[in-house]
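Sorry to interrupt, but I need a hand with the structure work. Please put the record directly below this note.
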Amino acid sequence: MRDIAIVGNGMLITAFSDAEVIPAGAVAWEGDRIIGVGVERELRSEYREARYVDAHGGLIMPGLVNLHHHFYSALARGFDPGAPMGNFAEVLDRLWWRLDRALDSETIGISAELSASDCIRWGCTTVFDHHASPSCISGSLDIIADALETAGLSAVLCYEVTDRNGRLGATEGLDENLAFIEARRAHPRVRGTIGLHASFTLCDDTLALAADRRPESSGCHIHVAEDPVDVDASRAAFGRGPVERLMQFGLLDERTLLAHGIHLGPEDYRTIAQHQGVVVHNPESNANNGVGHLDVIQVAQHGCLVGLGTDGMSSSMFRALRAAFLAHRAARGDPGAGFDVLPDLLGNNVVAARRFFDEPLLGELTPGAPADLIVIDAQPPTPMGGVNLFGHLVYGATEYPVRHTVARGRVVLEEFTHTTIDAERLAIRAREVAPGLWKRIAALPWGTSFLGD
């Protein structure tokens, strides 16, 4: 007997770019593939024995993609670093670089489970994570991958290579990336890429080594110009800005994810566009750290593909989308701005994600595509179509929870409840281990050099 399921009784949105909106729509899937999309009565007639998942009038749409996350930050919630932080460099040095040094295998795993749980709860089925744990490098990506595979999510993982912990730490980080990339090269759901912290913490020798050892088509994931310190310190130490250095070492191509990209010039954006790199906007994190605002319209006008991430602030892509929209209007002082490029962000995430997987239909609800789909518990109170879809998302869907999440055909959230993660037990365990982690962080000094010893 075939194991087929159908989700129906909702407003079906087939994609985030060039979407078709089908009232009373439904999606049928078998295994990890979609086998039918269309009007519910027709699909239920064709697949009479299928298991039925009720959308209760909500929005049925593709699973979301997050292009930049930091799972390791999950246990920092509520932590007081006990140190003044007046600029971005101090935030890194006095909070995040102490946190990552305090992580061990247990807290890495729990952080990944917590983040996976949140991704599922907010309808994200494919996530790109950027990890760092200098005291526990070897095997750290496998710990994260195990948590994601148990949860049911797809992911592209990397370890943050940096020279701030010395040469040995940099080479160990690169080795961790390379081992993981090779081990997961053909994995259907979890892949690897080269992770780099940011230009101002990477020596020329390390970038040259990463470029030389990087497997063909593996890509890289790096922070770029999140704060002016990245640009200024890179030029002072190496005579070139971050994008120029990536070009110098052959690390800029269509599989390069450049998180933030705020403090770059027009020539930098044109160079990124020429090499088909992806600038990943992280509006909530940018606001939280006071580092500035990415002018998405300007960057897109220079030809760049601009995607969207959460940078560890949360796992809610719809909230990030709304933050990008409102921040853009506030920065421009224009209550009519935002409907030209910002509606493309979620679709651009799909375009970028496809470059890392052998899945040309990823992010679409169409026969043959991966069965990644979600139901938002938001019944449209006014007419909805492809033309006004973005308005419904930013003014409506962002306010509602996800009812169902299906990841590669596996129902991982059903009627608002996790099926692969015991969220209550996980939260209890996290509260047990967090005090020990916080104590280790508090015992660590700050004042780390950008480039280590």
